[in-house]
Amino acid sequence: MIGKKSIVLIIMDGLGDRPSPILGGRTPMDSSYMPNMNRMARKSIGGLMHPFKKGIVCGSDTSHLSILGYDPEKYYTGRGPFEALGLGMKVEPGDVAFRANYATRDGNIIKDRRAGRIRDSTSSLSRDISFKVDDVQIEVASGVEHRAALLMKGSGLSDKIKDTDPHEVGKVYEQPEFTEEEGRKTSYILKNYMEKARKILENHSFNQNLLRNGHLPANELLLRGAGRAPMLENFGKKYGLNAGYIIGIPMIRGLAEMVGMEKIKVSGMTGSTDTNYRGKIEAVANNMGKYDFILVNIKATDVAAHDKNPVLKREVMEKIDEAMELLVELKDRALFILTGDHSTSSTSGEHTGDPVPILFYTSGINTLPAESFTERSCGKTGFTLRGLNVMDYALQLTERLEKYGA
């Protein structure tokens, strides 16, 4: 690949949005001051991208799989394994993993699914509720704030298990019942495990300290997204690209690790709105000579939208744009792809099935410019593609794609 441009895929999580009354009927992108990304839009191939299929409401896991060229219908088994990998857990064939939330339980009722968006490290809780039940080793790893992952290692395990997370406050936590007969053992093990884990959490010094200081305790571990680790082809082998990643959130970091990408270290990556935006983009500029492909995930846009805060999402977009100034003059060295993994409404706080804006920015191409990097402007170009075709398009723009046919 000597002499060919690097491919830099920058995914702004939950990028797209819908008009907000708070923003005068405009989206956060449309109301943002983004001179750098708008400048890129006017010299790019701009359009809209459907992360998977038109109208499908994707999660970040399935959409990232799709955009990287791994068909979710073939490979997706659940988000749990990616979350566990991203937290440094050793996930092997046959293991079953869950996403997890430390939550606040009042009796059998879930009072807060995020334990007051706990900021203190829950690593001591995770360590003390990692133990063996019968022949199954259960490990818990802490993530950012309330987030965690649970990994099960043993024979005869299945991911055919219901979530224990009721997904709403004020409801009773669910039992980890099996959805198919093969999950009977896993369900039995988890029920026994949760009974013991609740007693440990209830009496843990960490939670006693939270209560003394007027905070909600993290006395319940809610499970969701059960899955087995899929067998994904190595990204470098699949595309012939030496790949690195710059990612703050565990789930996407786990996916990158699973396909063999190398970690590019950046200090101050938080997976939230206080992340080191400029540091991420500086790392891109500094590593394009080392890697043929760099994947960047910026979670902050999605965080703001889930919090139903369109003003904050606009502020995040403007911080991203300020950092992007470093890349504007580097189009002779790389193909920059700017897009989102899905749309997230900052009005409802939920993912939507709307397409997301996408730009292919580099030199020496026939441009199809958008007036600005917004949902509306990118939609006016008439250019659309599916997430599964993003890598194909990138490879052909950098003269790497093999001819189809004679």
What does this structure look like?
The protein is an alpha/beta fold and 406 residues long. The chain folds into 2 domains: 6-76 and 232-397, Alkaline Phosphatase, subunit A (3-Layer(aba) Sandwich); 83-228, no CATH class. The protein is 30% helix and 21% strand. The strands form 3 sheets. Strands 10-9-11-1-12-15-2-16 form an 8-stranded mixed beta sheet, sandwiched between helices. Strands 3, 4, 5, 6, 7 and 8 form a 6-stranded antiparallel beta sheet that branches. Strands 13-14 form a two-stranded antiparallel sheet. A hairpin with a 4-residue loop joins strand 6 (136-142) and strand 7. The model has no long low-confidence stretch (mean pLDDT 95).
* Stretches with pLDDT under 50, minimum 5 residues: none
How many separate domains? Answer: 2
CATH class of the largest domain: Alpha Beta
Question: How would you classify the helix and strand content by structural class?
Answer: alpha/beta
Helix content: 25-40%
Quick one: CATH superfamily of the largest domain? Alkaline Phosphatase, subunit A
Strand order of the largest sheet: 10-9-11-1-12-15-2-16
Straight-line N-to-C gap: 23 Å
Q: Under the CATH scheme, which architecture of the largest domain would be assigned?
A: 3-Layer(aba) Sandwich
